[in-house]
Amino acid sequence: MSVPSVTFNDGHKMPMFGLGTYLAKPGEVEEAVKYAIEVGYRHIDTAYVYENEKEIGQAIREKINDGTVKREDLFITTKLWCNSHKESEVVTACKQSLQNLGLDYVDLYLIHWPFAFKSGKELMPKDAAGNIEFQDTDYLETWKGMESCKQQELARSIGVSNFNSEQLERLVTNAQIKPVNNQVEVTLNLNQKPLLEVCKKLNITVTGFSPLGRPGNRHGIKNLWDEPQIQELAKKYNKSCANIACRFLLQRGVTPIPKSVTPSRIKENFDIFNFNLTSEEISRIEAMETGIRTATFGE
């Protein structure tokens, strides 16, 4: 099955569907990635803070070694964590992720969040009172380190994650190398229409994490899958509600990266390339937005 791709402002292409791996448990994520590649996924998303880069790298090597794919067939994304935001720390952090993954380069390297923690080994450095220790490092400084990663060919493309419109515009104004992508939460509840318009204006692509709205999230946030309109669309197209949610993102130019470690769901989630929602249906889904986030920092 052919997956459409989007072309970055630097000329590289990204498959417009991927496997998310946030909270994918050790012992599960390796098998999930191998199965996803067998199904047809070519875009795998991870991050240093997920602490699963090594397992994902092992899965990638196994599928390359058994002839299922070549390295150039795959699109691998990872992210710089908040404890390495000084310019002098970024390249070192990127090299550590590459070592974890067992790769010579990643296709996309992102600043995970637009704020910095105290530098060091701790992922979540805290003071005596248990509060996170932040550091006053401007993301413009961090971006200089990201540019070095691209210049040294450690990352083919560089971008950001969880940046708002104001932060993006400031970055684009000051960057030597323009970010190609902004990865943010995009769901039926939070369709991000204003941010998508800004990204389009800036020629920055958007990847949508948690496109399925984190079913069963601990906050008890209602998933719009249960709404009759979504149920009716699933029935009309003979698809799952997850398929409707991902197709909604795809047709609005957003690359969905649903997370799963369950083989049946990994396969089901991928089945979105043989139907189209109508423009009226897209508008109706947009109108259902509640604006509620299921993913906030630290969760």
UniProtKB/TrEMBL annotation:
The active site is at Y50. Residues 26-288 form the NADP-dependent oxidoreductase domain. Substrate binds at H112. GO terms for molecular function: oxidoreductase activity. SUPFAM superfamilies: NAD(P)-linked oxidoreductase. Pfam families: Aldo_ket_red. The record marks K79 as: Lowers pKa of active site Tyr. Transmembrane segments: none annotated. InterPro entries: AKR, Aldo/ket_reductase_CS, NAD(P)_OxRdtase_dom_sf, NADP_OxRdtase_dom. This is NADP-dependent oxidoreductase domain-containing protein. It comes from Trichogramma brassicae.
